[in-house]
Design a protein that fits this description.
alpha+beta, 3 domains, 5 helices
């Protein structure tokens, strides 16, 4: 575990420390468990490396105050020593940019890795959900909500990748700035937790506990949205406005009568139409991020799914922190 001299924004969350793993990746989580390779990582080249196979192998880092670089040098794969040594770096910049640089990659990554030790290149983040079992004991489950897998066929000697972060909702700290944001996310402000989010970040459990999935649709900021249009013009409705209001009331009353009749008579034409409409507009309840919600400037799939490993079970709140 290494402390950073600056706050590194990872998926919009300011992190102050990283864990340098011998397996060719940085663990970015705040909670230590046995499944560190599953998610919450920055992996220039995650593999089954064993530094003890070569006396010249080392892992070192440099923190300049505005960037942090970790280098994995002359590492051999534990089960493929004969292919040669790997040397590569990952650099984290203060503005959130991530750079992967490869000095020596002796073999195509398509020929590396097994089902027990797959090779990963990219980054991923997750949120935790704590469920109380009994007393002060909780079951913690990890859900990956986003990942950026890079094409391993492009990884070779003397190649570098620059991964630039996109603005995220959870970086917006005011209600007005949240609901008026012009970014590629459907940001919503939740008054109960005083936070902006698209619903998928490390604070998801607090977001759900505060009922924010429903409340974030209420785009009213106390003392802000009511004072935006404060022109001194005449605010009277006029005859046209009154007619429009009456027409809307009549329309709503007619719709209410239609719905009540359809509900009371499900075999009638209105009833059958209402049933078919219900199935056409059924809400997707899967835990997936909004469309076009890339959190980094790379094309990727976005879905929230449980990690295919047993969840860590341990006492809480006396959990080990990274």
């Amino acid at each position: 575990n290494t402390d950073l001299s600056f706050k590194f924004p990872f998926y919009g969350h300011d992190l102050s420390s990283v864990v340098m793993a011998t397996g060719g990746f940085l663990y970015m989580g705040t909670f230590m468990h046995k499944w560190l390779t599953a998610t919450q990582y920055i992996a220039p080249l995650m593999g089954n490396f064993n530094p003890s196979l070569n006396d010249s192998s080392y892992i070192r880092y440099l923190d300049t105050g505005s960037s942090f670089t970790c280098e994995w040098s002359q590492l051999h794969l534990d089960d493929q020593v004969e292919v040669g040594s790997f040397t590569f770096q990952a650099t984290l910049k203060k503005d959130g940019v991530i750079i992967f640089a490869y000095k020596n990659v002796p073999i195509s990554l398509s020929l590396v890795g097994t089902t027990q030790h797959p090779v990963k290149v990219g980054l991923a983040d997750a949120f935790y959900v704590d469920e109380k079992i009994y007393g002060n004991y909780y079951r913690r489950t990890i859900y990956e909500y986003h990942d950026v897998p890079l094409n391993k066929t492009y990884i070779k000697t003397d190649v570098a990748f620059i991964i630039e972060p996109l603005p995220t909702c959870n970086q917006l700290d005011t209600c007005d700035g949240c609901i008026n944001s012009d970014i590629d996310f459907q940001c919503g402000w939740c008054h109960s937790v005083k936070r902006c989010s698209d619903g998928f970040d490390r604070h998801r459990q607090d977001w759900l506990a505060g009922g924010c999935d429903e409340k974030s649709g209420e785009l009213l900021c106390t003392g802000e949205s009511t004072s935006r249009n404060t022109g001194s013009g005449n605010t009277s409705l006029g005859v046209g406005g009154i007619i429009a209001i009456v027409a809307v009331i009549i329309l709503l009353c007619s719709l209410a009568v239609f719905v009540i009749f359809a509900y009371m008579n499900p075999t009638s034409r209105p009833g059958l139409f209402l049933i078919s409409l219900r199935y056409c507009f059924r809400k997707d309840t899967s835990a997936s991020a909004a469309d076009n919600s890339d959190k980094y400037a790379v094309t990727m799939d976005q879905d929230s799914r449980p990690i295919d490993t047993p969840p860590a079970q341990l006492p809480y709140p006396d959990s080990t922190e990274a």
